[in-house]
Amino acid sequence: MKEVTSFVMKGILKSKYILLVPIILIFFMVTLLTINSQQSGPTSQELQDTFDHRKETVNFLIGNLLNKKSHLGLPEEQQIALDSLLVQEGYLKEISTKLGIGDLDISTENLAYLKEYNLYENYDFINYNNTKLLEVEHLKAATLQRHDLTYTEQETPYNTALFSKQLFQIVFSPFTAFLFLLIFIYKLISDDQNRIFEFFKVNSLSNITVYFGYLMPFVILLLKYTILASFLSLLPPIVTGNLDMIHYPIEVVIGTDTLLVPVWKWLLYLPIGWGIFVSLMLVFAICLFKYRISFSFLIAIITFPIVIAYICSVHFGFLVVNPIHLIVSYDKQLLATNRFITYLFGMLILLILCLAACYPVFKSKRIVLRSSFLSHARKKYVPKPKWKLLQFEQIKKKRKGHVLFTFILLVGIIGGTFVVVNQAFQKLPTIYLNVIDDFQNILIDQQVQWKVIEEEFDLEAEKMKSSSEESKDISTEFPEENPYSIMIKDIENEYNNLEGLKDEIDTQDFSKMYREIMESSQSYKELDPSMWNVTVMASEEQQRILDEKNITPWPIGHQWISHFNDPSYAVDSVHYKLMKSSQERNTKYGNSGLFSLYKFLDWNMMLIVLGIYILLSWSSLSEEQRPNPSIHFLTTKPITFKSIYTSKWAYNLVIAYSMLLISGGIVFIISLLIGGLGESDYPILVYATGITDDEMFFSNVDNVHFFFESLMVLIVKSGVLIVAQIFFLNSLFSLIGKWVKNHYVTIIITVLVSVAGYYLANQYITASFMHLNPFIYFDTWHIVDGWKSVLSNSPTVNFNNGLMILLSSGLLLFLIGFIPKRKRVS
Hints:
67% of the residues lie in helices and 3% in strands. It is mainly alpha-helical. Among the domains are: 42-146, no CATH class; 163-367, no CATH class; 593-683 and 711-816, no CATH class. Strands 3-5-4 form a three-stranded antiparallel beta sheet. Strands 1-2 form a two-stranded antiparallel sheet.
C-alpha cells in the first residue's frame, strides 16, 4: 500500500493544478477581507441606532417629568424615577460618544446602564425596553467583560475570529465537500482509463493494496487542505492580535430561548466535521468505483443517500446516527447543547467501521454490477440512420464533459434555491421570535408616547380642577377616567398576547394564532377610499379567497405586501425602517414543491441559468471553423451548410430543454418529498394596467387594477415564457456564431448583447416602443404577475405579447442565418 500511496501522491503533487488550491484560497480570503474592510459596519450602526433611540426616549421622558415637576411637583416615586433616568442618560451619552468615534468597548458602560435600568423598573414608571431582549444583552455584555473583549462587527467582520468563522463556513461547506468528491472520482476514472490499475495488478499488488493505496493519498490531501484552510482563515486574527475573539458570544435561538455560543465551537467543529463527512463520501465512492459504475451514476448514487439523510433531518430533527449534521443543521442541535464532541467521536467510529467494511469489498475479485448500462467503458460509436449530425454534436460535447458539467451546475443552482427556501422554512421559529420581538419594540415605543400623553392629560386635568376650585366654578366637568388609559391598556394587552404567543411558536397552529392576533377586524371598505392601497385591499381579498377555498395561508404575515410598499420606495430613513419592519413581519415562507418553484422564479434565477447555457452547453458554427476546421470535413460528405446550421440550432434547443426539464424535475421531486406539492390554487396578486374587468379591484392610492391568479397558472406561464426565452437566445447565439469565426468571441458577444439589451429595456422601460424589445421579457416573474406593465405604464408589456415577440424574433433571427454570405470577387 505504501508504494501505491507514494505513486499516487507524487502524481498529484506533480500536477500543475495542485498549486491552484492555495492560490485560490489566498486570493479568495484576501478578496473577502478587502470587501469586508470596506463595508460601513452594519453591526456598529445597529448598536449606534439602538442606543441613540434609547437616549432619545430617556430625554423625552426626562423632559416630560421636568415639565410636570415645574408645574405641580413630583411624587416621591416619580422623583426617584427621574433621578434614575438622569443616571441612565449619563451612561447612554458615554456609550453614544464611544460608538460615535468607532470605539466598541462599551461592555462596562452597558452593564452599568442595564443595572440601573433594572432598578428603574421597580419604580413602576414608564418602561421603555423589551425585558426579554435586555436579558440576552446583559448576558452578552457580561461575557464580553469577563473575557476582556469588545463588541465587534458580526455581519462583515475582517480582522477577528468572526472573520475566521465566516471563512470556515465557506471553505468547509457542502459545496467544497462535493467538489473534493468530484476531483477524487475524476482521478479514479482517469487513472483507470489510463490502465494505471492494471499496471499495479501486473506488478502483483492486491486489490486491497491498490484501493486503500488510492484512498489514503486523498485522506492525506484532505488533512492538508483542512490544516492549510484553517491556518489561512485564522491568520488575520493571529496577525492583528484578535485571537481572543474566539470567545465572542454568538446568539443561537432554540425555540423561544436565545443562547450564546462562543465562536471557538464553530472553529473546532467545522473542520473536523467536514473532514469526517468528506472521508465517508470518499470511502463510499471508491467502493462503488470497484464495480465499474460510470461517472454520472456514481455521483447520482452518492448523492441519493445524502438527500435522504437531509430529508430525514428535516422531518425528524436531529438524529445521532445521521452524518448530514456534520455539515448541515449542526449549530442548534450540537453547538448550543454541548453535544458536538460526543457526536464527532461517534461519527469517527462510524468512519472507522466503514473503512473496516471496505476490506472484504476490496478483497473480492468479483464484479457484482455487470450491467452495460452502468459501465463507464467507452463504446464504439455506431451512427444511427437518422439524426447523424445531432449525434455528432452530442459525442463532441460528451467528450468535452460539457453536458455533465452543465447538468451539475443546473442542479446546483436550482437545488441551491431549494436548500435556501427549505433552510429558511426550518428557521421559522427563529424568524417568528425576531418578528414578535420587533413588533413588541414598536408597541413599546407607542406605549411610551401614549403614557406621556396620559401624564400630560392628568396634568391639564389637575390644573383645570385647581383653577375651578379657586374660582368656585362647579359647572366644569372632568372625565372620571383618562381616555388615553384605554389605548395604553389595549397596547399592553397586545404586547402580552404576543408574549404569550412566544410559548406557542413550536406548535402546529402557531401560524394561525399569529395571523388572528395580527389581523384587523375592520374591513378596508369601512375606511376612506383614499386609504385603499393595494396592500390593504389585496391582503383582505386574498384572505377571503383563502377562506372560501379552505387553503392554509403561507406563514408568517397577515398582509400581502405589494410592490408599491417595497422598502426601496421609502422617502426617508424612518419611512424605510417602518416599511422594512412591515415587510419582514409579512414575508411568506414555505417548503413545498410549488413554493420552491415560486421563489425560484420570483428571484429571477433563470437569468443565471440561461447564462450557463450560453457559456457551457451551446454549440456554434464558429467552433467548427477555428481552431479545428471540422466544417470542411462535414461539408465534403456532402452535407450542406444549412444542414449544419440547422442541426446545431436544433441540438442547442434539445439539450437546453432537456437539462432544464431533468434538473428542475429532480429538484421538484425532492421538494415534493420534503414539503409536499403545495396549494396549486393559492391566490397570487397580479397587477393590471389599462384593463378593466368586473372581477378586478382598483386602488385609488396606487392607481392600478389588480386581481388574483392561481399559483399553478403563474408557474406554467413562467415555464412557457422561459421556453420562449431559450428559443430566442438560441437563435441569437446561432446567428452570431455564423458571423463570428471564434467560438469564445461568439460567447462574449452574445453575453454582451443580452446584458445590454436587458439594461436598455429596464433603463428606458417607459418608452412607447419598448414592448417590442425581447429582453424586457426576461424578468420572468414580473412579466407574469403584471408588475412590468406597471413599471412601463403600458398594458402591452404582458405575457401574451412577450411570448409572441420572443418566438417571432427568435424565428426571424434563425431565418436570417440562412441568408448566404456574399462571395468576394477577386
